[in-house]
Amino acid sequence: MTATNTTAVNPWVNPTITGTSSNKTSKTSAAPEQILSEYSFAREGLVPCTIFAALGYGVHRHSGDAITNQDWIFSIGFLLYVFAANAIAFNGNQLQLNQWKQRNIRFQPMGQHSLGRGEFITEPSFLMYFAVSKVLGVLVPLVMMVAAPTEIATMLAPSLAVLLVQAVAEQSTVECHDVLRMAVPIAYSTYRLFGPLQVWAVASYDLYLDQAAGEEEEESSRSSRSAMYHVLNLGVAWANLLFGAYNLFGFLILRALPVYFDKDETPRVEMAYTLLPIPKKNNIKTI
Description:
By secondary structure, this protein is an all-alpha fold. The chain has eight helices and two strands. Strand 1 and strand 2 (27-30) form a beta hairpin. Helix 5 runs antiparallel to helix 8 (221-256). Residues 1-36 have low confidence and may be disordered.
């Protein structure tokens, strides 16, 4: 996600220009100081968190007992851990927040301070990648929850619930320390990939085989419609599994995480592409 950072107010330039002379009182002429409003979770983050939480509750209501206690314990427990770690280990991230305030830099969680330090958020390829992840991981499964047969809706519910909690976690921890902000998508993606998502993918294949065997004995318009949902379920499940695996092992770990390393202590490899962890051919220099 390579993106051009949003230009911030230069903290080192004094907006006041003072002129002095030996016999005259000094004059000050300056443009009105630009006042930047501070980020407010209540104003900018509460609404999306409420929407994702409401969707998660709806998924839970329609899932029966498909979503296990383990899913909820991890999903909610890890978010509580992040809040506690930020308060105890990083003092509420006050060092970084105060630094921005002193430099008159407005915190922009969806701009220059987005995940990856704003290096990806304005890249067209990343915006497409982000949109695909939301359509594939949230929108399509939500539609399937409503329209597909019950066995399919309950099958995909745990993966969708964990993803919705992750969305709440990412929105509610934007002011946390960078270590914890990166830990959120990595932790939730790991749990979802090796837990509900792989269970959904395997179960969708088994359900498809069972449906295909039953379809040979019964041919009707109802059977044909059911077959369509089973094929869709199989395709969406495995597409999510492959996308989730690449997002974790390709993008988050190899592209986004290195952005936070010290450039001098850990020289950063310049990548040829926004989303692919492939270095430029002339990037490695021989000493």
